[in-house]
What we know:
Elements: E1 4-10, E2 15-21, E3 26-32, H1 41-58, E4 69-75, H2 81-89, E5 96-101, H3 102-110, E6 116-121, E7 125-130, E8 136-140, H4 152-168, H5 175-184, H6 188-197, H7 200-204, H8 207-212, H9 218-238, E9 246-249, H10 251-256, H11 262-265, H12 275-294
Parallel strand pairs: 1-4, 4-5, 6-9
Antiparallel strand pairs: 1-2, 2-3, 6-7, 7-8
Amino acid sequence: MVDFLIGVDGGGTATRAWLARRDGPVIGRGQAGPSALGQGIDAAWAQIELAVRGAFQAAALPVPPWNRCALGAGLSGVSNRPWRDAFLARNIGFAKLIAETDSFTMLLGAHRGRPGAIVAAGTGSVGEVLRADGSRFTAGGWGFPVGDEGSGAWLGLHAVRVAQCAIDGRIQPGPLARRVFAVCGADRDSVQAWCDLAGQYAYAQLAPAVFDTEQTDSSAVHLLGHAVAALETVAVAIDPPGELPLAVCGSVGRRLAPRMSPAIRRRLVDAAEGPAGGALTLVRQAVEEEEAVRA
């Protein structure tokens, strides 16, 4: 018998768990370290368990046997099928276990499980839609550096290119280039060494410099304009008729949303919940569907 429902949002920075009774609201929240599947299946499970135990502690409840709980997880890396299969195979005893992409649980949270669309831009970027007939579609989200246009990492990568042009003398050093110099160095060897070691997260840390220098640097204006255009193409791709409500999520996405075209802005709604709430919706729907079939 399932007594508790748990929704988990697991990414490369942190893991968040929301706890609810079968037919009730959230009663506890827990947090732990990163549980992106790319860091290893055992490591991901360890952090998920810590976050879930923290949620029970926050609810002032003893941790029950896992077979009294159903868990839905939106995890970074689930789109890699072998990782997903390995994660599910290592179930530590939950009565029901569902693993979905973190973008889909973000979508479910944003619209409380109802049809709708999201464009998410944080470190990376992706668009996803849930249609009225239950079908799904994803655009973007191809990963850094070949995709994720309009994201923080994409902005940071292009900011470094601006700095490289300034070092070469192809453009005059402006405020944006100087902000990059402060992080990466102001000569060819320093910037090259930084680039050799930098990954998606490091590039994303340069995104604030693009926003901060917009008033004084045309290169920053140019990059932000291209980021907005990239996210708009994703919004159109996931819902060409523009009929569904659209939530723009993520730290970068929320800053760019007011710059989008009037046609896009007319569709915008605030996200009702985050991905942990979406994961809870996911597992609640799955349990209810199973019970309906058994009845």
